[in-house]
Design goal:
The complex is a heterodimer.
Chain A (H helix, E strand, L loop, with lengths): L2 H23 L9 H5 L1 H17 L4 H18 L6 H19 L1 H24 L4 H4 L2 H10 L18 H21 L6 H24 L2 H34 L6 H34 L5 H21 L9
Chain B lengths: L4 E5 L5 E5 L3 H26 L3 H27 L3 H5 L2 E5 L7 H9 L1 H5 L5 H9 L6 H6 L1 E5 L19 H4 L2 H11 L5 H8 L3 H4 L3 H17 L2
Antiparallel strand pairs in B: 1-2, 3-4
The chains are: A mainly alpha, B mainly alpha.
Chain lengths: 329, 225
Amino acid sequence: MRQRAFEQHHRDDWEQLRHVLNDLDRPRRKRQLNSVATGCLPKLYRAVCNHYALVCSRHYSPALEMELHELIVRGHRHLYKGRGAHLWRLVIFVSVGFPQVFRKHIAYFWIATFLLLAPGLLVGGYCYFNSELIYSVMDDAQVAQMEAMYDPSNRKPGRALDRSAETDMLMFGHYISNNIGIGFRTFAGGMLFGIGSMLLLLFNGVFIGAVAGHLTRMGYQDTFWPFVSGHGSFELTAIVICGASGLMLGHALIAPGQRTRIESLKWRAADALKLVMGAALMLLVAAFIEAFWSSSDAAIVVKYSVAAILWLFVALYLGFAGRGSHGAG
Amino acid sequence: MLDTARRYEIPEGIELGFRVAGPVVRACAWAIDLLIRAGLYLAIAIPFSFMGGLGLGVTLIIFFLIEWFYPVVFELRQGATPGKKAMGLEVIHDDGTPIAWSASLIRNLLRTADFLPFLYATGLISMLLNQNFKRLGDLAAGSIVVYRDKVGVRPELPSVKPLHPPQAMMRDGGRTLLAFAERSAVLTSDRRIELAEILSDLTDRKGEEAVAELHAYASWLAQGR
């Protein structure tokens, strides 16, 4: 068959496909075709793929080849586009997918926990017994500011004095941008063969431990511990999970196993992303608790009770949510 | 290695082609996005700054969202950030399908690693070492930045009286003849003649006559006698 005859014979199919694609390119509200008309996209698309293969093998003109190529690329994009229902998938992810992925890779979580906890306890213990050590972790101004934040005479614990007048909303914004940013950076640090994540975990452990040890030694335990114990449940766990996701990337790069390094990275990154996104949602909850609950002036016993409930909730959620259900994640 | 054209096979059993985008054009796209983001920051910070602590809190949250999710939102909506779109680029998966949630989030969260130690130095090295110009985020996400095909007007074959080409040109030269005839309209007359005279040994013609001869062959190839 000659090119001209071929074109005349199939031109209708191409025009119809173009018509459907033009309609699909419009925003959903402005579409003119009904679902029956757009529903024939796969059939038309496959027909045109067939024509394209013929055009190539019969050495028809490059312009015709390009015309069909463009149609097929557009059709391919529409046919293989991701599914919608984002909100529902988010619900499934939170209730089932995230805890499942967490348990699947729990080894990384324990390693990350150790990396945060070990220096935390070590430095914290030293700072508790030694009043000088805190100054090797942070400088004088930082120590003074931190002491002022948790001074029992401070009306709103956990906030520096010059900030106490500002609203909870400001602190909410600050905690979100600061903490979730740290979480994401910890994840990205995994690309440096896991060293970035590891350092961030160690650094956070040292810093948090030093502050806790120092303040307890100062006798500020009744302002400090009730403040941090509540949101700490979500925040510390989430930071450790971010660290775990970074360690996963590092593991994929250092020990790719049977795969090539890049394939192994791609394979693990998918699950690591689920971990870090779940952790980001946990940090969002933590920011909310920290801004609106932790700084409130509830009685210490109430704060400790709420903290206990929150820790228990986090443990139950990560340990049991989504057990026994399949096909998620 | 210098050719940026890549082909991938799709499930329908045919191969599609695309051209990967290099560091320079991507840096330009990034710079455009940077300007847009700076504009957004200003447009948000100024009105909210009159609202005290509440306004500041909201500003911080929006800044955070823009910093991390600006590229993700646009990549999911239209396959490219406004900067990339302006430069005619788009992001797709390695297998040619449109970018989805997971890959877009991975490649954009890992920007932090690519940025190290300053101004995407790591990303640039990764791009130069990789034949598809992938930065670290692209490697982990399995994504690739390519040129968006421009929808061009299809050039027409010159309509002249068909003439049977010599047998020597029939086998492999056919497609080249058609390509020449279709491109004739965008070539200068000198260039047309120069190209056509390469085949003077076969056509025995010179100058515009050689061009017309080849057009006649192309016409025969497309529609027969």
